[in-house]
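Severity: low
Component: inverse-folding endpoint
Summary: output formatting inconsistent between runs
Steps to reproduce: submit the following structure tokens with default settings.
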């Protein structure tokens, strides 16, 4: 303390006169109150590189408190590890570094922060180093205690900090070129504001996450390393998804939270793009890539080609192995770190990631019995047409004269070694193009191996858990199954190990396709409309439906009036003297006239029937519930659906409606419902 005090006395003596920038008008406080010193409250921050720039982000209040308690425990920081961010990161206190637990990520510097200065190009505050912050705090304590201000300090980076008074403290950057001549820094340039304590800077500090984890959801990304228009990774996008879920739990599951029935749902990302492109394929592609339009070709190689990789025997195996092994690895690690976890597991996939999960799920085996699972895995019906009879086959081969001999000797196709083609599972939904005969099943080392013409042969790994629900966002599953030759999904088919399946999409998403028409191909019906998270439909949709209904009513009334007028014009003229009518004719006339209005309102009645929600059997893929769920577009999106097409495919990460549907379905499996059902 004595060395610091002597340093401050030298600095104060070197600058006895007020700074030109510190006139009396800047002295904004009553100095009589300055004799009371209170220690500063520290807060812990970590540094992230965002857009090639360092950004200091505060830990939430609970994590910061835990770090401070570990720091102040007196047991020494070396070797101390403090889990933060809901257990997704570990802070090594001695190293002052923050490491990701479940995925690969560059380590971040951690700092115990007390003093800050305003950044150069933005209004965000940057913390001083811990050592220099201690010097600033000691100088501040002396100034407050002795009521002696105008203190000037020099930082290790030769920056000048002047403490004019408790409300006015400024920071000057060193002048460029001054170091070359060995001159001392001066107060030049624009001063920056210096603040003491995190409570005096504008920064959002969130509360901690609930400790109890009710459910675990693995999220698999689609093509490319970027998952949204801001070119963010799957980790960042899942962070948004998780943050939205925490907010919705507070607003829509408030009663359950107050009764301590629920905690939170943990969402963890699964990355398969990096392992795929670390196989050396990028180097091979670069050798054959043309030099023109370099950025577009790089985007194609890094993103769009992932679709073709998935249809390659070599790289498809790499992708499914990576996804399954990553989910198994993370699940095992999660249980190790959360030994009291008793909740279920679900999986979610975006774009191509949903197709990968669909293929993995259709090739799982139920641990209760491989035989039953094998039957289930073949439960998707292929439209291969009627199997030709032996007579038809002989006719094609111009051997019809031998049919009588075969029939007499009771020789059928099986006796000739010809097997009937069996339906293939969805993941390998492929029709033999020319050959009508194929092996009913293929096994190798006891594992189901899916083989078909047009689709790669892949050995699908097994998951070490049974997912409860499968959520698909912006999914091309329906299109891929159709291209593979699948015409119809058996209504009785269900995943061997997963009970639920929700196909969620934006109406303008160019990559998304429906599933239900493949289960019920002969019936046209609309998908389920996802309610707005604030209730009801969006105003522009209600207005549009109201206008449509009004125009239909006007149209029906107009058509009815025209029909009535036309019938009155074309009716035969009545005779001047009518014959007396029989009682039967008198009774029949009202009946005929009563039929006319009903004839007029036929279309109106049909419209009303269409508007009624009739029960539709969409099979057992989602346990008998509906499968296709469509989001409501925003008002601005309805002006030009082409303009917002790409954005629609990437909108799910921050969509409250999507997240709320996921939470609602997950907690319904636990008997917990929304505070107020959405309409």
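Observed output (run 2 of 3):
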């Amino acid at each position: 303390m004595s060395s610091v005090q002597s340093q401050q006395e030298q600095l104060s003596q070197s600058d006895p006169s007020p700074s030109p920038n510190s006139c009396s008008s800047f002295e904004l406080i009553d100095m009589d109150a300055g004799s009371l010193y209170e220690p500063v409250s520290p807060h812990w921050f970590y540094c992230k590189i965002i857009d090639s720039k360092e950004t200091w982000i505060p830990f939430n209040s609970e994590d910061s408190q835990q770090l401070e308690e570990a720091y102040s425990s007196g047991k020494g920081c070396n070797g101390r590890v403090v889990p933060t961010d809901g257990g997704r990161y570990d802070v090594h206190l001695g190293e002052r570094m923050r490491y990701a637990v479940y995925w690969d990520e560059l380590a971040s510097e951690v700092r115990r922060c007390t003093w800050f200065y305003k950044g150069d190009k933005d209004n965000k505050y940057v913390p001083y180093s811990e050592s220099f912050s201690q010097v600033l705090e000691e100088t501040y304590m002396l100034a407050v205690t002795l009521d002696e201000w105008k203190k000037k300090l020099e930082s290790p980076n030769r920056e000048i900090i002047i403490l004019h008074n408790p409300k006015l403290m400024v920071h000057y950057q060193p002048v460029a070129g001054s170091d070359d001549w060995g001159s001392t820094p001066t107060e030049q340039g624009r001063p920056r504001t210096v603040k003491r304590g995190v409570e005096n800077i504008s920064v959002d500090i969130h509360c901690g996450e609930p400790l109890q984890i009710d459910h675990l959801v693995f999220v698999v990304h689609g093509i490319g390393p970027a998952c949204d228009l801001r070119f963010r990774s799957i980790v960042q996008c899942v962070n948004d998804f998780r943050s939205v879920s925490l907010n919705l739990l507070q607003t829509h599951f408030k009663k359950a939270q107050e009764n301590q029935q629920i905690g939170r749902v943990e969402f963890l990302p699964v990355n398969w793009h990096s392992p795929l492109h670390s196989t050396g394929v990028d180097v091979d592609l670069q050798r054959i890539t043309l030099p023109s339009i370099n950025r577009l070709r790089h985007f194609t190689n890094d993103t769009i080609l992932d679709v073709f990789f998935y249809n390659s025997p070599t790289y498809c195996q790499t992708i499914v192995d990576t996804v399954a092994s990553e989910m198994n690895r993370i699940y095992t690690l999660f249980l190790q770190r959360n030994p009291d976890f008793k909740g279920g597991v679900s999986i979610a996939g975006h774009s191509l990631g949903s197709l990968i999960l669909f293929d993995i799920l259709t090739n799982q085996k139920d641990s209760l019995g491989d035989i039953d699972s094998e039957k289930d895995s073949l439960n998707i019906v292929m439209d291969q047409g009627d199997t030709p009879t032996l007579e038809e086959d002989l006719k094609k081969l111009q051997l019809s004269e031998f049919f009588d001999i075969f029939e007499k000797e009771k020789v059928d196709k099986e006796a000739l070694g010809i097997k009937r083609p069996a339906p293939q599972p969805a993941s390998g939904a492929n029709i033999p193009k020319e050959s009508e005969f194929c092996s009913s099943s293929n096994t190798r080392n006891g594992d189901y191996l899916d083989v078909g013409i047009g689709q790669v042969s892949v050995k699908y790994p097994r998951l070490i858990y049974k997912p409860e629900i499968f959520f698909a966002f912006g999914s091309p599953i329906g299109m891929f199954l159709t291209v593979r030759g699948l015409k119809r999904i058996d209504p009785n088919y269900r995943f061997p190990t997963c009970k639920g399946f929700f196909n969620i999409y934006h109406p303008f998403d160019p990559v998304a396709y429906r599933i239900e028409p493949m289960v019920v191909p002969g019936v046209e019906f609309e998908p389920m409309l996802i309610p707005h998270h604030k209730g009801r439909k969006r105003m522009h949709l209600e207005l549009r439906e109201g206008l449509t209904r009004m125009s239909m009513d006007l149209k029906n009334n107009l058509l009815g009036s025209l029909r009535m007028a036309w019938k009155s014009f074309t009716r035969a003229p009545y005779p001047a003297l009518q014959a007396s009518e029989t009682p039967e004719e008198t009774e029949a006339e009202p009946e005929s006239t009563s039929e006319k209005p009903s004839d007029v309102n036929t279309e109106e009645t049909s419209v009303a029937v269409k508007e009624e929600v009739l029960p539709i059997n969409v099979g057992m893929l989602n346990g008998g519930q509906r499968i296709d769920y469509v989001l409501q577009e925003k008002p601005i999106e309805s002006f030009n659906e082409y303009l917002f097409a790409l954005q629609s495919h990437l909108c799910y990460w921050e969509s409250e409606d999507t997240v709320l549907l996921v939470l609602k379905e997950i907690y319904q499996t636990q008997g917990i419902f929304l505070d107020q059902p959405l309409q």
